[in-house]
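[step 3/7] inverse_fold.run input=structure_tokens len=265
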């Protein structure tokens, strides 16, 4: 019977997610981010049922406070429901610009809805553009696997994590490289990447952007840490842990890696 104990919270979590996935909630972000309107769902994670928006993602909020500056151009790759997108838009202000890249049309629709709701916010924010594509190391078409647990863990076929809870289906999505976006958008000062295990091909397609030394905030799977380091280390990046610790000297901290370019203060 001892083996059944940890299953109970998992089952309850699964039931709560499945029961609320179809609901869309209108929430207000913390006052420090302009009390912006955000349309969200548990498809982005159960955290969005929290009583206070301050509890949505304290680590993410701290990343935005620390690394997004007024006037910055921010690219949010793997935008999910747009929490980083909106807080970065508030922080960078009307002189900045935010590009939200989200391959799932349903999630991208929520981000667009939030962007429209805040276009005339009392405290002006950066313009937000939403691009419904996946990021890889080549331009083309790929399969996006829709995670059974929630859409925040969707992944490109061949990648993914252990957090998906299975697969509910697949859709075809266009793929772009990060460098390919330079033909259409200004280069980022802050590059946030959360692509469920596909961070290596994403970074392989970012040579030109990385030459401009943006701050890189990246979810890194443990198995990919060495490969990510082989891309970033030759450019002089140093690593920190988003949870507050100092990164090792030889490779990024797995999970929440922050890569700072030379000279960043």
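[step 3/7] decode complete -> sequence:
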């Amino acid at each position: 019977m001892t083996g059944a104990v940890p299953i109970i919270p998992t089952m309850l979590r699964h039931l709560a997610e499945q029961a609320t996935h179809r609901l869309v909630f209108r929430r207000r972000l913390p006052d420090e981010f302009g009390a912006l309107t955000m349309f969200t769902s548990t498809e982005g994670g159960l955290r969005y049922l929290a009583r206070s928006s301050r509890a949505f993602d304290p680590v993410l909020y701290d990343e935005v406070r620390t690394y997004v500056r007024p006037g910055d151009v921010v690219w949010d790759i793997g935008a999910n429901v747009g929490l980083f997108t909106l807080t970065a838009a508030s922080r960078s202000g009307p002189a900045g610009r935010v590009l939200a890249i989200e391959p799932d049309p349903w999630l991208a629709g929520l981000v667009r809805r939030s962007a429209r709701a805040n276009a005339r916010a009392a405290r002006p924010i950066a313009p937000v553009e939403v691009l419904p594509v996946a990021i890889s190391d080549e331009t083309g078409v790929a399969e996006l696997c829709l995670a059974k647990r929630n859409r925040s863990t969707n992944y490109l076929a061949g990648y993914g994590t252990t957090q998906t809870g299975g697969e509910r289906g697949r859709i075809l999505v266009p793929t772009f490289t990060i460098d390919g976006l330079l033909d259409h958008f200004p280069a980022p000062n802050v590059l946030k990447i959360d692509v469920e295990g596909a961070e290596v091909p994403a970074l392989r397609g970012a040579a030109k952007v990385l030459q401009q030394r943006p701050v890189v905030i990246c979810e890194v799977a443990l198995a990919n840490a060495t490969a990510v380091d082989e891309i970033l280390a030759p450019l002089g990046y140093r690593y920190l842990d988003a949870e507050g610790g100092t990164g090792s000297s030889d490779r990024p901290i797995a999970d929440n890696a922050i890569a700072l370019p030379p000279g960043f203060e």
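[step 4/7] annotate
The longest helix spans residues 7-20.
The domain at 56-260 is CATH 3.40.50.150 (Rossmann fold).
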